[in-house]
Fold these 3 entries.
Entry 1:
Amino acid sequence: MQIAPTGAASRSGRRKASSLAATLVLCLVPVTAVHAQHASDDPVASADDAFGLKLGRETIGIYSPGGVRGFDPQAAGNVRIDGLYFDQQGGLSDRVVEGSTVKVGVSEIGYAFPAPTGIVDYDLRHAGNGPPSGTVVVSAGPFGAYGASIDASVPLSSNQLRLPIGASYQVSTQTATGASNPGYTSRIGNLGLTPQWAPNDWLSLRAIIDWQHKTRAKTLPIIFTAGDFVPPETPKGYYGQDWAEGESQSENYGLIFKAQLTRHLSLAVGLFRSIADNPVSYADLYLDTQPNGAAEQFVIASPDQKTSSTSGEARLTGHFGAGAWRHEVVLLARGRDTLALYGGSAVADLGPGRIDQGIQQESYAKNVTDPILPAARLTDHPLRLYASAALAMTAKVTGYAGYTQGLEESGVAPSSAANRGAILPDARTWQVDAGARYLLTSRVKLIAGVFEIQKPYFNFDTGNVDHELGLQRSKGFETSISGEVLKNLNVTAGVLLGEVRILGPNLSAAGVGSFAFGQARVQSVTDANYKFSRCPALSTDIQVRTYGAAPASLNGVARNHAQALVHIGARYHFTMLGAPSTLRLQVRNLMNYYFWNLDVSPGFSQYSPRSFVAYVTTDF
């Protein structure tokens, strides 16, 4: 791997995208909304399938907002807020959203304008319609993390104008990979509010204000090996640079207007502003790592990197139908304008080191030059087509099929690339899928289906430049079972069987193998929750995740071994100061399993060792 010289120029990139389309949607399948209950949260019991649900602080299902069928719907720009298009740059906090659901397969049926890599739909915090209410959460763990949050819904003018508002502060051990690691702490303050004005049943106006500031964020090292092998195991602990502390700020603002114009016509308009600002950030890289752990260490320091986006959607929907048939004609316009400021990074060579030992050198030199670069412009104007249908074949069996074309974001080159921060071109994508949903009992449903997805493949070449190397084609089979399988026992379980192949004319010359880096052919997740009959206030739960062996180098020679994770926990419902409360305890990575995290392609980072989490939620 090579490092670009210091003094990379500061640059900026702007993207604009818009679409205008009309579609006819025929739905025979009801859509279930998930509503958080705060102190009585139970994501396993609330899940409609095993494909992905985030409810409050917990996430279950085989997919997540950052990973669906081997791809990242958030990076691809497939994010919605209450069903409306949102170009997310800064992270949304729990102060303004109840959670999120992953729309994929049968859950996309009836969802206007789906996307090949799935949709992440955020559910805004519910305003309520009663007296003032609130929820307090106090948490501890994992690895010394702690925090507190308070959320409330306050009526300002009867029930017509309500103010959901919340604030939080925490010392977090969650890193950029999404995992928690000991010693890699950050301080996060957050304030959010989502006021709602609803003077009657057919008109509502909603605002979103979400601010989150992270400071003193320790940098998790990323390891790049010198050959086709995985790094040696290292002690589970902190080996970062104490002085490499980043700072970031996320801001999200929005307005949502909804009106039922007539019995058959409704209007929804959303306008959003999302900002991700990183005044200072670092990348701690161990390059040419040997089987014994010896490596060359570099730290990349980047000045203010900022991405901001204005996006929105206007949707006019005609509702028609009778009995079990429902027809919708949707006229939609959506667009975004994204501005990215990046570059100006400096590289500090810290010399020889070992991947399990931090070097406490606390000074470095930074040189920045600003060469004159020619202006660059990228345009694309594709036609986009999709069609999906569901058919109730019997009282218990519903079949579905769909075809979707997409124009998706490819994100930016990571800080470990020679062209770090560069905006990558848009990606033309397509997907076909089909399957069936079968009601095993009145409380248990089974979903099974097949899919195929194609999109450009971006990764590092032999010169460490992140760009399009070919096509990636994902084919697979996915299945989900969810519901109350026995009295008081709720289960959601999902399995993904498939592969992501890389196609291209000169892959071997670029050092690229036939299968995508880090993508296991077999993945599964099982979540189970049991409520004790003799003690209804007490429940216990378990989550088991498995991943098959996966390519651990771009050429596919090195392999990451199969992995299994077990999390166990319990909930106890009680009353504190007259308010309903819940004590949540959880042990994550129960077996203290060791494996390398492959989220940062093509580098390695440590996954979380065994950890303990506890928090108390109180509704008042």
Entry 2:
Amino acid sequence: MARGAAVPGENNPMALAADLIYTLLTAFLYLSAALVFRNPGASSSVRWVETIGLPGYLAMLGAVFLLLCGIRAVTGWLRGPAAGRTAGDLLLIPAAAAFGAACVWDCRREMPAGEMLYVTAGVIAVLGFFFYGALKRHPELFAPRKQRMGYRAAAAAVCAPAVFGAAFYAYHTVLRYRVFSASCFDFGIFAQMFEYMARTGMPLTTCERGTLLSHFYVHFSPTYYVLLPFYMLHRSPETLLVLQSAAVFASVVPLLLICRQLRLKPAAAWGICLVYLVDPALQQPLFYDFHENKFLPLFLLFFICFFLAGKRKRMWVFLLLTLGIKEDAAIFVMCFAIYVLATGAADLREDAAEAGKMRRQAAEVLLLAAAWFLGAVSFLQWKGYGLMEGHYSMYYLPGEGGLLSLARNIAMDPAFFIRNVFDADNVPYIVYTLGALLFAPLIVKDLRRLILAVPYLALGLMTTYPYQHDIGYQYTYGPTTLLFLLLILNVREWEAFAKTVLCTTCVCAGILLSYTYRGHGYVHYAWAYEANGARYAQMEQVLAEIPRDASVTAETFLLPHLTDIPELYMYQDSDTPRETEYYVLPTGTEHRFFLQYEELGYRLEREESGISVFRKEALH
């Protein structure tokens, strides 16, 4: 203990004064949080202050202060003066968290997410300051003898929030589908594909490109077949939403095992897992339909886990599952393998023989991943639609394409590359991803670790395609998974105190940033379903009565509820009307089809619950 520091429980004036100041600050934060929640709009105007007055405010502050002093005294009487002092000081942490939540909640009511983001970032910085101050006063909490949590206890402590998170997101995303807020892109195409797989074994769709084709011509994703047995147990589009929520939150299992492999203390591993469970870049895309990317954390982390454990058979199984998610999944595997080779596995194993074995294994993984990537890309260019090079079109000269041209032009004009990476449009994405982790993944002792951040740069920052640097979409899963591995590698070298401050602040940051991004959107679908459940049931009934062997063109939000129809197309008002037996559109819209359906030979067969069903007599 530093010279001059107050000994816990020691009755000296300096220690008592510090205790009183901390207690008063805690009381101030609790009262401030309560008043903000009690007076919506407090963050935008001080007019509400006149309803309380200074005497009333001081009386409330004094009451909270005395209550906190009572808690200190009772705890000290029951468990000793040192415990009372510690408990009293640590009350500052929930007080600061409550005040931060109140500020973000009140501001978000009136401000859009784009403007609100900077307020939230400031609140997180303030919270980190308070957490640091509260924990710094009690170094005895971080003594080795206090670290009693084992990995079994850590696993048990992670299980409950993981199950809750999976159930919460599965429930609300299913309700999103039930209130007709899921669209053809990107839910109807996958719902129809799985129905085709269940019937024929082939990943076919008609609504993805307006013709019957294999989805693998768009993205090479054979891992979908691993999900097919689960879909067959309950053949409904809702099953897909439940599966992806379960997969995202189940990824905390291999994450915890990786922490153990990398010799992180159980308490720190538990903290990292909690940060993962509330990370906005992993939560928010769940509300955007269904995508193969959302299975990346589960399979990629299990691959890394078994790689570190030296369990080759399991490692190869999960390596193939990871590569089969999508053609660009190989990028994450290759970056991990290159990182192992670049560091000589010294980050992962101290024993030279084990490190050498890991290097050989990493070389094998790199070769297989590179071969898979080239094979998948060649397949897409030969049989399919090729790579989505349009996302990086700004780096190509007219008539160019391919990875070699991309790399050459970036190397020759790095200034253009830097401009795109640090464009203002990327700032919110950086705050939501790296900011949610307090930029700890970038605090490296060995710069070679930053190889793991290459996918974050390549797939998130260097493109002007807006969805790739927006946490509301599926592109965040692979880069964020490697950021968590980088986080573990970095923080395992930190002291217990620093790990605690980081994890505590990051948990609050994840919750606040998620709310900033989505606001009340979490429960919007539940409210809508509760208020209009009967109407949605009637809409489902109308759609269920359309013959399943007919050809149908449907509006984008109605289409996912018709995906058991083999010949199904999405209606686009700008296209020439397609000749199908049925058109299914929302009533009262301004679609061009409504103006000319009689000229096209259709008649209105049914109009109910906001749905208009048109049938072409000549084809029926």
Entry 3:
Amino acid sequence: MAPPFGLHSNRRYVELLIAIILLLINGKVSGQQGPVGGLKSSFDPDKGFDEIIVTAQKIEQPLQQVAASVTALSEEFIENAGIKDVSSLGLYTPGMVVSTNGTSGRIYIRGIGNNLDFLGSQGAIAVHVDGVYQARQWGVFYDFVDVERIEVLRGPQGTIYGRNATGGAINIISAAPTKELAANATISVGNFDQLNLKGFVSSSLADNVSGRLAVSRKSHDGYTDNLVPGSKNPDDEDLVTARGEVEISSGENFELRFLGQYFSRDVEGPAIVPTVDGLAATLGAQSNTDPFKVSQNTDIFFEADSHGLTAIATWSFNNGLSLQSITAQGKNVVNYHLDTDGTEVDAVHFENREDHEQFSQELRLYNDKSESRWAWQAGLYYLDEDTSDTGVVFLPAFGFDIPVAGDIDVEAIAVFAQGTYEITTGIGLTAGLRYNNESKKMTSPIFADDRAKWKDWTPHVSLQYQLNTDVFIYASITKGFKSGGYNVLGGGEKVGPEDVWSYEVGSKIDWLENRLRLNGAIFYSRYDDQQVNTFTGAGLARIDNAAKSTIYGAELEVFAMPTSTMNVGVTASYLNASFDQYLAADPFLGAVDLAGSRLSHAPRYSMTFFADHTQPLASQASISTHLDYVWQDEVKYDVFDNPSTNQGAYGVVNASVWYTNAKRNWKLGLWIKNVADKVYFTSHAKLNFTPEGTLSWTGDPRTYGLELSFDY
């Protein structure tokens, strides 16, 4: 009888992890005492919810005193909810939608984002990993490993985060090295031959030197069957992630951190489901309505390798000032081949390779508010980015191919400052301003070379009032800016910049001795020259600037601790986002007036409910359960009002149960995602030309497994 979950195919990795676990158990016997790491509770039963310290404004602040909409997810919640990468964040963040277009992530917050992934495009949500901006959307879907917390800032972040943050920003903060020896080893197995191995070790390396190393390897078989004889099943995935840090301190005045990360993703796929057969049907393609059965005759694959190095130096001065330098270099290589007709006939397929390098430098001077009524920061930012792309759209049905190739060099420079002044006790005024100067150069063997530069000022003003120890209210005005660019993988057209003005009023309330937390906001935004992706009659992407849009809505986060062993939460969002002016070009219908039409990736309503319960047992043991239900209203995945590119309202249930033995520092859990096996689509693409019609990407089916974790 074969081992369960297909462990025979990964035996060497299991043996390696067992060896690590035995080593940790031996270390435990040596005298390590008490619970560590993820085994701690996130709240004190006697004091209510803990004070959460965030760096959403690049300075340490209590979450309940940040004059902005911020969702902060702790390490424990990330683990219990099974949040594996950026694609899962939208489930627990009001107003956030992540569309997974096969191999890439399209992130939207409050209806603002970008649905184009190729060269010449740029996201509207700035993703930062340990303070470093990730320029390409391919690079933001790496595996979450050894993460301390994640912060999602909703709404424009033009002053502090600047570049491409018209919709918001995501901060991913890794766990820091410890002076005491700490380690973890975790193994998880599940259906579809899932095998996840991860672990970390952290310790002092010498006087004033500490280090941390985390590694992860995750794999699973494909969720979709390929009906073409001799073809591989798509969605088979293999991820390898490694992250390391060395921290050097010199007394209390200087700290130097070196961080490195590596990520590799190898996918047989993705599976592309044709919901409209078009020309493929006339060539003999069979109709198929099962989203988990495809007929793809072309060898499909996606390979990505990414690595980055970061040096963070911080000097602290006696007068309360600090100076921080963040120097970072990164490289991404992406190679993929898609069967874009999604059928067994040879109609259309696409092969492409992208090479990307980036270098960034940020200098930031800031003060410690504890010694002054002012809290301020000022800085300089520089980014150099080079992206090259080579690909071919194969059209055997037409007897010709379309080559696509080009190179885009980016140089971005910014100067920024922001300060908060305490006018009187409990009342503060914040003002900030950023100057953005960005130039781009396009070179291509297909289109004429060109160079352009865009400049813009992005201000921020907010007024905050600490009404009492329980109630904090604020009002803000912010501008976000995203520079223009070139559509190298389309018609080579130049795209203008976009900007958004956002007005927001919010409150953060802790009641009932910190056992009830209510955070809410209402907002109104004016979105000008929005960069929108459509497809031309040749099946290539086109980027337009939509004239004007209006976005308004409300968000609410409620967290309660009804008993000392339970906490529950509800997040909800209402969003009204529509074009005021946009005369779009449809390949078949010609000019289409989309005024009054909803923006894509902007569901009117969304809601998440979750509950955690911990039942203490004898000998420092406990049983914890986690349950969440995520519901999303109907959403458009395409700019045009085409029913075939809409996803209807749907809900997904996830659950897990954990047995924790804090005395022995081990944990065993059973988890299940998409309990009801709900079928839904994470993206639709209306390519608007005869050979392909509408293509769809399917969300994960029901998955489940067991996880065993040891801490030292």
